[in-house]
Amino acid sequence: MEIERVQEIASLSNLNGTIPIEFIRSENEQPATTTIHGVTLEVPVIDLSDLDDQKLVASIFEASKDWGIFQVVNHDITSEVISKLQKVGKEFFELPQEEKEAIAKPVGYKGVEGYGTKLQKEVEGKKGWVDHLFHRVWPPSAINYQFWPKNPPSYRETNEQYTRLGGEDLTYMLKINYYPPCPCPELALGVVPHTDMSSITILVPNEVQGLQVFKDDHWYDVAYIPNALIIHIGDQMEILSNGIYKSVYHRTTVNKEKTRMSWPMFLEPPSEFEDIHTDQPSPDTFFSRSSIYRVTICRRTIACRLPTIINLLACGQLNHLLYLTLPSKIDLTLELLEFVF
Q1: 3-state helix, strand, coil in the chain (%, to 5)
Q2: For residue range 151-184, what is the model confidence (pLDDT) as tens digits?
Q3: Which domains does the chain have, with CATH numbers?
Q4: Residues forming the active site
Q5: What is the pTM of this model?
Q6: Full DSSP string of 20-43
């Protein structure tokens, strides 16, 4: 069965100035009526060039606890690498439709990898104004190149350069979101309100405004900072911290004239564990708070190479759960308490 792609629907919709009814959100979801207009949310910005590690740890802890989202600048990924990542992603979505369909998710495929349009069913049959490409980028043993574009020719090299980050024990899943121009952006959403199931998400957006965060019972646009990485705390980190860190509730709006794109990288825990079951953690676990989650905790020793931000996040008030030595801001050896839902 042929699947309609939003990119194709957008081409027709922009000609007649309307969008199909399945993309029109209910009034209590529409950006026109639910966004605080004229105010851009200044989420915490953390400068990783600061040599005071204690200050960085404290800043990341406070941002993760109070916001669940922050932006980092002066990180280890160069603007050239980010620009190349954005360039090859954009070029893929500009390919002829039949070439993109060559790496589409197969019918009946249970995984998320591949080119696609609808990741999950929504209530009332509504749809998001977005196409996407999903594939694992790390470790090499987890990669299925069946779902990697062959064009543009530099796609693989560029993505491998961007994702030379982790050890074999962590899985990195890249998603490229493509939000084409929408003639009725006040009525539609790119991605509905949600939290990420990952432990941490590292997001690279383009310059088109679209990311919104739910803060103090209102939806706000998040300020765009060129070459900054946006860090989302995910559900797994909230559970691991017993609710100290907050999984950020966010959504995506669309633009009438411009294409918005984003590159979220989802960090996933190891797939195999030595299980340690716990229903009632001891008082010194989870920051001396009563447990608010029932989890399966798993102990594993991992040697890995991670971005600076993850090292510091791990340090920030997770000492009851994470023991690590930090010989540099990039290389670390840690004994990690992982968990399974």
Answers
A1: 25, 30, 45
A2: 999 999 999 999 875 555 678 999 999 999 999 9
A3: 6-268 (2.60.120.330), 274-340 (no CATH)
A4: 175, 194, 196, 250
A5: 0.83
A6: -GGGPPPTTT-HHHHEEEEEEE--
